[in-house]
Amino acid sequence: MPTMDFENDTANTYNELAKSYDRIVGTSIGSICRYAVSALPHPLQPDSRVLDNACGTALLTRQLLEQYPEVKVDATDISPGMIQSVRSLIHAKRWEGKVEAAVMDGTDLKFPDETFDASFTMFGIFFLGDKGAEQIHRTLKKGGMAVVTTWAYMGGLPILHEVQKIAKPETKPFSAPMMDRWQGKEILVETLQKGGFGDVQVLQRQSLATAENTEELVDMLMEMFQTMTTHAWGKDGTNGMKEPLRQVLKTQKERFVVEEEGKVGIRMDAFVAIAIK
Known about the structure:
47% of the residues lie in helices and 23% in strands. The chain has helices spanning 6-17, 21-38, 59-67, 80-93, 125-139, 156-167, 177-181, 185-194, 214-233, 242-251, 253-256; strands at residues 49-53, 72-77, 99-103, 116-122, 140-154, 200-205, 208-211, 258-260, 263-276. Strands 1, 2, 3, 4, 5, 6, 7, 8 and 9 form a nine-stranded mixed β-sheet that branches.
C-alpha cells in the first residue's frame, strides 16, 4: 500500500467515507467507544472538558454524553466531511454550547497546554504517530486521562484474502503496512510513552461489525473493502468481488460470521490504551 500523505490522502479518504462511515464500522466502533468511556480510571465531573480527537462522525462523543451528559466536548478531525457530519449531529441533538466541532490536524492541535480533563483518540493514532501522542499529552491537564485505541483484529481482512483467491487470484494477499504495524499493542505503548506518558495500561476488547442480514453484511463488507484498498487498487479495484464474497460467507460461515441477537457480523477487536498525565 502506498505511503499515505496525512494532510491530503487521509482527509480526502475520510471526506468520501463520511456518509457511509457509520454503516461500515459504526456498530463495532460504537461498542468500543462505550467500553472506552466506562474504562476511565476516574469518573468525569460535570465541568470536565473532553477532547474527541480524530473524531470521525463523533461516535465517541455520542457514547460519552450518554454517560456524562453535562461535560463539554471538543470534537476535532482533519476531514472537513467528517466535521460537517458532526455539525449536523450537533444541530439534530441540540448539543449547541455543549459540543464544538472543528477541522484540526491531530499532530498540531490548536488548544493551549493543559486544556482537557480527558482525551479520546479512537482509531486515529496510526495516522498521528509520535507527534499526535505528544499533542494528546500536551493538551491534557496534569492528572488528565488519555484513552487511545487501535485495531487488534480486523475481521474483514482474512475475508478479503479469501475473496481475492477467487476474484483476483493473480494478486498477492492485500496488505496495508501502516495498519499491520499497529496490530500489536507494543507499538501503541511505545508511541504513547514517546509522547510523554509513563505507565500505559492496555486492555483488549472484542466487538462486532453487524448487519441485519447476510446481504446487508455483503454490502457492508464491499464498502469496507473499497475503503481499505482504494490507495493500492484504485476505486474500481473491488469490481467483480461481490459474488465471490457471497460464496466465501456461505462456504466459510463458521470461520467468519458471528450471529448474535438476530443479526450477523464479523469480529473487530480493539486494543484500548489508558494513560494518565
